[in-house]
Every structure is written in structure tokens, then in C-alpha cells.
Amino acid sequence: MKKKSLIEVISFLLMFLFLYTGISKLITFETFQFDMTRSPIVRNYPTFSAIALPTIEILISICLFVPKYRKWGLYSSLILMFTFTIYIFYMLKFTPDRPCTCGGVIRQMSWPNHLYFNAFFCILSLTGVLLYNRSSVTRLETKYSHI
Q1: Of 1, 6, 113, 144, whose CB is crowded by the most CB atoms within 10 A?
Q2: Picking from 19-33, 36-50, 61-75, which range would have the lowest pLDDT averaged per residue?
Q3: Would you list the domain boundaries of the chain?
Q4: Distance (Å, rounded) from C-alpha 122 to C-alpha 127?
């Protein structure tokens, strides 16, 4: 599979994940916002967090869809997935009461499964970033090889 095709597949998977969870959080906004009040990390800003997170997820989806902004979408995906993974790790290690603030069917996963799921998408995001950067370097090398 060509790098470009693999980057597009990775982008599509991440786009689908963020679009699905972002829209799910907006559809169940009141439940999502209530769950945010129970989270030890964001409980002081539940309304802001309940608006900001799905908005960010949907914006990342748009960046992943538009080729011109795909680089930013891949980097943003990596940062957001890494942040979510750290959050889940923290919750598993230090918090006995763990409200799930995920959207859609992902909400049904156990916390350890959340960690594995997020680790997979972190690796997928990192792979997308590395492939994108590698393909950009290759294009530049080809473009300036005559110099």
C-alpha cells in the first residue's frame, strides 16, 4: 500500500472516531456535562469542557478530511489521543470512582479496554504523522534533487 493511501486510511479512521464521539457527546450533552462534573480533573469547568471537547473533536475531523489541513489534523489527533490516554491512565491509577465521559458505544468499554483502545489510536496517529512527514520529506528531496 502506498504511503499516501495509508495516510488516507489512517486519517479516515481517526476522522470517523472523532466525528462519532464528538457528535455523540453533543447529542447526549446533558449527560456528558453531568459526567464532566464528576471527573476529578475537569469538574471545575464542566460546561466549558462539555462544549470544548466535542468541538475540538469535530474540528480535528474536518482537518483530517481536508487534504490541505491533514497535517494539522494528524498532529492534533496525536496530541488529543495522547492526552486522553494519560487521563485514562490517571483515572485507573488514582481514582476509585470513574465516570466515563466518552461518547457513543465507546462509553460501554471497561477502563482497561479504554486504555488499550486509546493506545491503539495513539499509535495509529503517530504512524500517520510519521508517514505524512516522511512523504513530505520525500517530495522535497525529489523537488530539489536537481540542485
Answers
A1: 6
A2: 36-50
A3: 3-143
A4: 8
